[in-house]
Write a structure and sequence with these properties.
Blueprint: H1 3-59, H2 62-73, E1 78-84, E2 90-95, H3 103-114, E3 123-128, E4 133-144, E5 147-159, H4 161-213, H5 227-297, H6 303-330, E6 339-342, H7 343-360, E7 364-369, E8 374-377, H8 379-398, E9 406-413, E10 420-427, H9 434-437, H10 457-467, E11 471-474, E12 481-488
Parallel strand pairs: 7-9
Antiparallel strand pairs: 1-2, 1-5, 3-4, 4-5, 6-8, 9-10, 10-12, 11-12
Length: 491
């Protein structure tokens, strides 16, 4: 169950649980309060007429006595006013129809009258809870010289049925007010919790979903959140950073393992191919050397074949050089020691391997080398980086629709820092879009069609150059597509 639903459910249960006790408390409190007020009003009214009523009875003014009893019967809730003389006979009776009293109340009244003392008894109230009414009895007497004359007992029966209905309405109003106040409080509390608890947890839930899909899981830390939520957000962001760092390490290691496997397989194949090609090449070279010696003994006689033989020997040497470069390129150089190697040698062997491809693709391969220096490196790995960048440039230019297609390799000293060599591989393209440029050096990112690229070449190249204390990056400011390699000069 979601937190919002649980809050609503718990609020509803709380309302039900608290409403019933609150209703009964409000009902009983209001009813008892109104009963007490009615009782006090009636007693106060009776006591105000007690002297006049006693005088009327003493002098036998029965019309006035009747008038007083009628006035007393007009009080709210009074249903019967009667006067009993000292012999316990009813003298006057004013009764309102529509209300009865129980037999238990009559029994209580008779018991009171039997034990009644004019000298000590004042106002006596006999409750009748079953009939929701009370009997009020008050003694009437007159002091005549030294003797107390008994005049009778005034009986007043009153009820509070109407007070019960009023108490019910009052209790309902109080419950309604309570509900409104509670709902307003709950709404405020919900909005408060939504800001400080529900929304941060919802953002956390969405971020976890993104973590499984895109890896972008950083959440903004709001200092207005409660301490626990802010701390949880910081911990989660730290976990996300560690997860991304771990993922990048895993991807890098995975790309290296794939490259090592690929290079190992290619090296084994290249070694076999080189062995099979070298044998017939050496035989061909041997026969060509013999022919060349024969030609050189009499150039006039063999002038027609002198040039073709020279070209054939150069072709055989070029094939042998390509095979040697392929074997050097394809081998895994991770375990090779660093060695000081002529940079021009690495570049010439690399260009030799891709020269024919550029030629058949009608793409001009231009080189500018103003530096004669050695670099401390693993030769096969640096050759792999150069060849990978040249092949990427070839693929990009092939898809370009410009008329003059070219790729340029520039080698020069770093003008901003001594002891460094800068190699630029530039093609005639108009650069790489910004959204692609941000990811182009990441593992497994590729813009090529399925089956034509794994997205490992550039990321592995970055790792190789960094292992050589150098840097490989995309020059975003260059008008064309330009990858830059910076390497320290060797000794």
């Amino acid at each position: 169950m979601r937190l919002t639903s649980k809050l609503v459910r718990d609020a509803f249960i709380f309302l039900v649980v608290i409403s019933l006790p609150a209703y009964f408390f409000a009902f009983n409190y209001t009813l008892n309060k109104n009963k007490s007020e009615r009782e006090q009003t009636i007693v106060k009214h009776i006591l105000s007429f007690k002297g006049s009523l006693s005088e009327a009875l003493w002098f036998g003014d029965y019309p006035y006595t009747k008038q007083i009893l009628n006035a007393l019967s007009y009080n709210d809730g009074v249903t019967q006013v009667s006067l009993i003389d000292e012999s316990m006979k009813m003298v006057f009776d004013v009764t309102s129809k529509g209300h009865t009293h129980s037999a238990e109340l009559l029994k209580k009244k008779e018991q009171f009258l039997k034990s009644h003392s004019y000298e000590t008894d004042g106002v006596k109230i006999i409750p009748d809870e079953k009939a929701l009414s009370n009997y009020l009895l008050i003694s009437l007497s007159k002091q005549n010289e030294d003797k107390l004359e008994k005049l009778g007992v005034l009986h007043v029966l009153y009820h509070y049925d109407d007070l019960k209905k009023e108490a019910r309405v009052t209790a309902m109003i109080m419950i309604a007010v309570l509900l409104v106040v509670f709902l307003l409080f709950f709404l405020f509390e919900y909005l408060y919790l939504r800001t400080l608890l529900i929304k941060p947890l919802s953002d956390l839930e969405q971020a976890i979903g993104k973590m499984n899909s895109s890896g972008d899981i950083r959440l903004p830390v709001n200092q207005n959140h409660i301490f626990e939520i802010a701390s949880l957000t910081k911990t989660f962001n730290k976990m996300g950073e560690e997860q991304q760092h771990s993922a990048s390490i895993i991807n890098a290691q995975q790309s290296k393992m794939i490259n090592i496997s690929k290079m190992s397989s290619l090296g084994e194949m290249a070694a076999g191919v080189a062995h099979e090609i070298n044998n017939p090449l050496m035989i061909t070279r041997g026969y060509l050397d013999k022919i060349q010696k024969t030609v050189n003994t009499d150039l006039e006689k063999y002038s027609e074949i002198a040039v073709p033989v020279e070209k054939a020997i150069n072709g055989v040497m070029r094939v042998a050089k390509i095979v040697s470069g392929l074997r050097s390129f394809a081998r895994n150089g991770n375990s090779d020691p660093m060695a000081s190697v002529d940079l021009d040698k690495i570049l010439s062997e690399t260009l030799e391997m891709c020269f024919e491809r550029f030629k058949h693709g009608e793409i001009a391969l231009q080189t500018t080398n103003t530096v004669t220096a050695k670099i401390l490196c693993r030769e096969s790995q640096i050759s792999q980086v150069f060849l990978n960048l040249l092949n990427n440039a070839f693929d990009a230019v092939t898809e370009n629709e410009v008329k003059e297609k070219w790729v340029r390799l520039q080698v020069e000293e770093d003008k901003t820092a001594s002891g460094k060599i800068v190699i630029r591989i530039i093609d005639c393209g108009n650069g790489i879009p910004e959204e692609v440029a941000k990811k182009v050096l990441e593992p497994f990112f590729t813009t090529k069609e399925t089956g034509k690229g794994t997205g490992l070449g550039l990321s592995i190249s970055v790792g190789i150059i960094e292992d050589h204390n150098g840097r490989l990056y995309l020059d975003a400011k260059h008008p064309n597509t330009c990858f830059v390699i910076e390497l320290p000069v060797g000794t």
